[in-house]
Amino acid sequence: MSSINKNECERDSSSSASASDDDDYDDNVEEENVFGEQEEEINILEQVQGLFSTDVFSNVIEMFRTYQSKFDLIEFLKKHNIHSQYDYIRLINYIRHEKPSIDDLKQLKSSKSPPWADDKYFETVIENDPALQFDIEEDLSQLGDLAISSTDDQDNNQLKKANERIRQLEEMVDTLKSMTSRLLDDQSTGATTTTSKAQTKDDIQDNGYFATYNHYDIHKDMLQVW
């Protein structure tokens, strides 16, 4: 074999080996990414110690769902403008380190320098803490149904209050109707002079009754429209 052909074969072999190495590298990177995603998903499904107690929950989602009625994570993140995973991690570590109560956190006002803003709260308290693996950009959607449910409960409570108010207004309207009906009946019977004087006073009050009646009727209609 000539030296030229030999060199060409070596170049072809080298190119093939290089291409093969690139393919292997891409496959390894893809496998690592898939493994990393699976590992992260597994972590958030592992048992986790509660943020505000020593209770152990089956997973992070279950923990936040248990706290939902007292500590609404979604609302808390919105209130304090926590949009990045770094801020979330510092928040969790702050809670682990300082052990504030739920009431303590609720009393915090929105600030550009919240107590968890210090970089020292990047230091974890629990090794491989599943709560830190919770991705607020992706996993938070799993709590979305809770936020919707909470909103629905609030709407239902407001509706119940409105219906109760309508019932009370209807009773007041019926009472006013009964009173004005009696006044009109008294006027049509031809009462005595003394009674007429009393009726004159009642007539003045009657105008107030009608005005009140109209007010409550309008108020009731507004509630029904709502």
UniProtKB/TrEMBL annotation:
Keywords: Coiled coil, Cytoplasm. It is an enzyme of class 2 (transferase). It is found in: Cytoplasm. Transmembrane segments: none annotated. GO terms for cellular component: cytoplasm. Its EC number is 2.1.1.319. Residues 20-37 have a biased composition (Acidic residues). GO terms for molecular function: protein-arginine omega-N asymmetric methyltransferase activity. InterPro entries: ANM3-like_C2H2_Zf, Znf_C2H2_sf. Residues 78-122 form the Protein arginine N-methyltransferase 3-like C2H2 zinc finger domain. It comes from the Eukaryota. Residues 152-179 form a coiled coil. Residues 1-37 are annotated as: Disordered. This is type I protein arginine methyltransferase. The lineage of its organism: Eukaryota, Metazoa, Spiralia, Gnathifera, Rotifera.
